[in-house]
Write a structure and sequence with these properties.
By secondary structure, the chain is mainly α. It is built from six helices and no strands. α2 packs parallel to α6.
């Protein structure tokens, strides 16, 4: 039993915050557990990337100001680290259900229509992320053939695009299956971020 009030927001920065959904079927519980495990891995990766970018930028700034020198690799690490943060951060936002949605429209709809709208938006997100994944994979292949210079291979940087898109598709698909399960059972899906 949770000691958190029923209408409290869970702390999205603490992955161990347990959110209970009493209306979940066994399938939904399993899906949420898998989604949570992948989200926790993304959270750890984001933290590690952020620490790396901050440390490298700090070392570069000190070296530049104190010793009038710069490290060529630091610029690549910062640039590529920020790009990786953006891609994995988009996937983590999808896991947390904190990405863009049509909340203004859905608030005016009855519970069943609200779920149908969420499923439609999930299908649209999966479609657009699928295009992003294909384009990113094409770019990764092209870059791996044409680019050989640099401290960090460009194919690794380009691989962040399909990775981020695949993770967005993964999280969106799980949330969509949960919504469809609730719709099939005639239940209203719990509001995002509510603890029961």
């Amino acid at each position: 039993m949770s000691s958190t009030p029923a209408d409290a927001e869970p702390d999205v920065l603490i992955p161990s915050t347990h959110i209970e959904y009493p209306e979940d079927s066994p399938l939904c519980k399993r899906l949420r557990k898998v989604d949570g495990s992948v989200g926790f891995a993304e959270h750890v990766a984001l933290f590690a990337l952020l620490v790396m970018v901050v440390v490298v930028a700090t070392v570069q700034a000190i070296a530049n100001k104190a010793f009038h020198t710069s490290f060529v690799w630091s610029f690549e690490l910062i640039r590529d680290g920020v790009f990786a943060l953006a891609m994995i951060g988009a996937a983590f936002a999808t896991h947390q259900q904190r990405n863009l949605s049509m909340d203004l429209v859905s608030r005016r709809l009855p519970p069943g229509a609200k779920i149908v709208l969420r499923v439609f938006l999930a299908l649209f997100t999966i479609f657009m992320s699928g295009l992003f994944l294909l384009a990113g994979e094409h770019l990764r292949r092209k870059v791996s053939i044409e680019t050989t210079e640099g401290w960090i291979p460009m194919w690794m940087v380009a691989a962040m695009i399909p990775l981020g898109a695949a993770l967005i598709i993964f999280h969106t698909t799980i949330h969509m299956i949960i919504d469809i399960d609730y719709l099939r059972r005639g239940k209203s899906t719990p509001d995002r971020g509510r603890v029961h």
